[in-house]
Amino acid sequence: MSNAAYPDWGLEQIVTDLRASREELHRTRHPLGIRELPSRDGVINIVAGLRAVLFPTHYGAPDLTDESVDYYVGHTLESTLRLLAEQIRRALRFLPENAGAGDEVLRKRAFDIAREFGHQLPGIRALLVSDIQAAFTGDPAAQHITEILLCYPGVWAMTHHRLAHALHRLGVPLLARFINEIAHSATGIDIHPGAQIGPSFFIDHGTGVVIGETAIIGERVRVYQAVTLGAKSFAADLDGTLVKGNARHPIVEDDVVIYAGATILGRVTIGRGSVIGGNVWLTHSVPPGSSVRQGKIREIASDSGAS
After folding, report:
1. 277-303 in b/e burial notation, b at 16+ Cβ within 10 A?
2. What is the pLDDT of residues 110-146, one digit of tens each?
3. Could you tell me which of 205, 300, 217, 306 has the C-alpha nearest to residue 261?
4. What angle do CA 131, 134, 140 make, to 5 degrees?
5. What whole-number distance in Å separates Cα of residue 92 and Cα of residue 97?
6. For 247-263, how does the pLDDT look when each residue is reduced to its tens digit (9 = 90+)?
7. Whole-number pLDDT of residue 3
8. Among candidates 68, 76, 75, 70, which has minimal Cα distance to 50?
9. Do 124 and 178 form a contact (C-beta atoms < 8 A)?
10. Whether 106 contacts 171, CB under 8 Å
11. Contacts of the segment 209-213: beta carbons below 8 A, 24+ positions apart
C-alpha cells in the first residue's frame, strides 16, 4: 500500500503548539501544579453506592430480604466510604490551607471527613424522605412513592444536593460541586451545594431550575420548572476581582410556591406563605402572605405598603 494512504498530519507541530498553549500561552493548571484530580467516574459510583445505602430496595440489589438488607447496606457503605475518602483526599489538595500538607495528613483528614459524613446519612435520608413525601402530596399525577424515587428528576437532583451540601459543610467544596454538577447534567436542575434547603422541598418538572450558592429556602417550599433564585449583582474588589461568598441570593421562607419561569434576584426575602406567579421578575422583598403575578404588582399584601 502506498504512503498516500497515510497522510502527513503534521503531528509534531500540533503537539509543539499544544505544549506552548498549555505551558506558556493559555495555562489552566492549578497554581500549585496539582495533577491528581477527583475522578468523575469515581464520584458517579460513590453517589450510586450512597443511593443504594439510603434506599436499598429501590437502588440496591433486586433480591434483598429482611434478613439480608442490613448486611447489604453495611457492605455497600463500607466500600463506598473507602472510595469517598480517596476522592476527598484528592479534593482537599485544592484548598489553599492544605498547600504544604503531606499525603498522610490529608489521608487521615479525608478519613475523618468521610467517617463524619457517614454518620450524617440517617439525617440526610430523613430530609430526602420529606422531599419524597412533598412530591407525592404536591403532584396529583404521582401514583406511589416508588414512581417518585425512580422517575422524578427533582428527587434525583435533591438526592445529589443533600449529599453534596453535607460535604460542602464538612469542608470539601470541590467534591460537593462535582456531585451537584453530575445531577445538573442529568436533570437540567442546577443547585449550588452551598444552598441551604429545608425539609419537604419539591421541584415539580424541574428542567431549568437554578438555585444559587447563598440561597436559603425554608420548609415545605415548592418550585416549578425554569425558576431562578439568582444574584442581581456581584460585588468586586478595587482591581475588579469578584468578591467570593457574600450573601447575594434570595431567602425563601416556609410554605412558598414559585411557579414556572419566575426569576427572583438578589438578597431579597420572599415572606412565608407567599405565591410567586409564572414568569414574574422580582428584585425586591415581599411580605408574608403575598401574591405576586405578572402585571399585578399591586396584589402584593395590599395593606403592607409594598410596591
Report:
1. beebebeebbbbebbbbeeeeeebbee
2. 999 999 999 999 999 999 999 999 999 999 999 999 9
3. 205
4. 135
5. 9
6. 999 999 999 999 999 99
7. 58
8. 76
9. no
10. no
11. 209/157, 211/249, 212/248, 212/249, 213/245, 213/249
- Rounded Cα distance between 183 and 154, Å, is 10
Residue type, 274: S
Reported as a pLDDT band with limits 50, 70 and 90, residue 301 is very low
Sheet-wide strand order for 196-197: 196-197, 216-217, 251-252, 269-270
Domains along the chain with CATH numbers: 14-189 (1.10.3130.10), 208-307 (2.160.10.10)
297: left (phi > 0), else alpha (psi -120 to 50), else beta?
Answer: alpha
Give phi and psi for 152, each to the nearest 5: -95, 115
Q: How many CA atoms lie within 13 A of 21 on its CB side?
A: 6
- Angle at the Cα of 231 from the Cα atoms of 31 and 172, rounded to 5 degrees: 40
- Distance in angstroms (rounded) separating the CA atoms of residues 197 and 221: 9
Q: Which cell numbers hold the place of 290?
A: 403575598
Indicate whether 304 pLDDT > 70. no
Considering the chain, what percentage of its residues have pLDDT values greater than 70?
93
Are 166 and 149 in contact, with CB atoms under 8 Å apart?
no
- CA–CA gap between residue 173 and residue 216 (Å, rounded): 18
Cα–Cα distance for residue pair 49/56, rounded to 1 Å: 9
**What angle is formed at CA 196 by the lines to CA 155 and CA 188, rounded to 5 degrees?**
40
For residue 178, give the amino acid letter: F
Grid cell 440517617 — which residue? Answer: 122
The overall pTM is greater than 0.70: yes
> How many whole angstroms separate alpha carbon 102 and alpha carbon 89?
11
The amino acid at 21: S
